[in-house]
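re: that complex we talked abt at group meeting.

here r the seqs, copy pasted straight from the sheet so there may be weird spacing, ignore it
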Amino acid sequence: MNDQDRRSMPLFSIGIVMKLTELTARQIRYYEANDLIAPERTKGNQRLFSFNDVDRLLQIKDLLDKGLNMAGIKLLLDEENKETPEEAPKKEKKTPANLTDKELRGILKNELNEAGRYGKASMRQGELARFFIKH
Amino acid sequence: MNDQDRRSMPLFSIGIVMKLTELTARQIRYYEANDLIAPERTKGNQRLFSFNDVDRLLQIKDLLDKGLNMAGIKLLLDEENKETPEEAPKKEKKTPANLTDKELRGILKNELNEAGRYGKASMRQGELARFFIKH
DNA sequence: ATGAAATGTTAGGTTATTTGACATATAAAT
DNA sequence: ATTTATATGTCAAATAACCTAACATTTCAT
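got the structure back, here u go
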């Protein structure tokens, strides 16, 4: 079992994730409904979150604080998880606006940098996993 | 928050611990009843296990495989967790037999070494935490 | 004002966990 | 060869935790 396996192992109930992230169950479920996370389920359909999921939730929280909406967050997070292209299976999804994905991402990243200048200390990517998982 | 805090943070439900340790709920509760572990509880009285707890369960499983009983396991595990004596509060508990604690521990450790010679590969102490927690 | 986005709140149903009792298998002691 | 102790299985009733869905509230941009 490698590090990525460990990070994606479904371990935490929603109650624990609430404490780890200080998000409400309502928020967590809402983000799932908007495809920002996709936690596993038990046989009985209850959510089970991995380190990666919790990490992602912390990032989502951070980006929300900076004023992003679901669509923006999704774009950014999907972007980051695409940084490691193995075979690069080409299949771009269409954005609602008449901007190209690239244009949109550029705008978003600029805005984020702005926010970073005076916003609260940003929780960098992978915070929780770094906290718990050996590298 | 330091490493020991992370290791002792109550995170896992009994269902997850069953999968992580391949013990049944009955076994886990039995070991608790025999004071081999002492997981935290939620407000609603449900068990919440830490990395340390899971680690300990893996050790218990290993020692059971080697033929130890609850009393022997308790002695050994308490021993190991006493290796870091801060102020050494003297308060020895009496064993049922007419052997001193030291004698008993000596016997147990010898038997363990014997078992180690041909038994299955032993899960060393701290296995799970080492697996997940950064040092 | 209107509308959309994010979150709160409540209700009814399902799943997971708890304790306790009794059963079973095996090993140890008599 | 019985008896006794140990470890675990199984079942039941009670409760905690979680699920979805609906409706309410807040905030912010039009």
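couple things i noticed - Residues 13-15, 25, 29, 44-47 of chain A lie near DNA strand D (CB under 10 Å from a C1'). The CA atoms of residues 55 and 94 of chain A lie 26 Å apart.
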